[in-house]
Amino acid sequence: MYLIGLTGGIASGKSTIATRLAEHGAVVIDADVLSREVVEPGTPGLAAIAARFGPDVIGPDGALDRPALGAVVFSDDQARADLNAIVHPEVKRRSQARIADASADPAAIVVYDVPLLVETGRADEFDLVVVASAPESVRADRLVELRGLDRGEAERRIAAQATEAQRTSVADVVIDTAGTLAQTLEQVDAVWGRALSDAAPDAARDADA
User: What is the pLDDT of residues 138-167, one digit of tens each?
Assistant: First the structure.
């Protein structure tokens, strides 16, 4: 199995990259999906969040009110650290289980789409680290235009994450997503070709074992 870590800041274009890799045949595991699963109604994760942040972050239907929680954690470093301490261990456990399942196919190329790869210190777990990159101003524009945030909130959310320099320092490949979609996809296709080439010796060795 060949394992790619895909990361990037909010609104950096990771989803576009992950979708393209899936079209090529990669097994994509999305940390954002896992993070939602671990705080579904009835989970210990949601109970812990309610205990830490209070009833205002729980909606009338008993589900997590993500905008309400986001308004708290993106403006308070300690609150964000407390949330991460609740969510990250369970997400890591689930991701490791999904990766283990995928490894049943020795020829699998697995992409773990994880926004906080740098923040959680997991870069050395991957055969290849791919970083989606765009200037902060472009990412802020996307948050305003596509997600409806006001400019100040968009900038606060970007500032709450690792810097571009921190992410690119652990990257094997940086994909510039600030250009056209075609330009982004061309870079992703090159990454897929590299992954196939890198993974081929491992697959051949496993077949001979």
Answer: 999 999 998 888 999 899 889 988 899 999
The alpha carbon of residue 185 and the mean position of all alpha carbons in its chain are separated, in whole angstroms, by: 18
Contact (CB, 8 A) for 114 and 6: yes
Instruction: Give the pLDDT of residue 121.
Output: 85
Using CA atoms, how far residue 46 sits from 42, 86, 90, 151, in Å, is: 7, 9, 12, 29
Amino acid at residue number 129: V
pLDDT one-digit tens code per residue, 97-111 = 999 999 889 899 999
Rounded CA separation 135/149 (Å): 17
Which residue from 101, 79, 115, 93 is spatially nearest to 37, judged by alpha carbons? Answer: 93
Identify the bridge partners of residue 30 per DSSP, sorted by sequence position: 113
Distance CA 74, CA 89 (A): 20
Count of all residues that appear for the chain in the document: 209
- Is 132 within 8 Å of 13 (Cβ atoms)? yes
- pTM given for the model: 0.84
Identify how many contiguous H helices and E strands the chain contains and give both numbers: 9, 5
Backbone angles phi, psi at 6, to 5 degrees: -110, 125
Report the alpha-carbon angle 33-65-92, nearest 5: 30
Q: What is the dihedral of CA 185, 35, 8, 187, to 10 degrees?
A: -20
Taking the C-alpha atoms of residue 29 and residue 94, their distance in angstroms, rounded to an integer, is 10
Structure tokens at 35: 């993070």
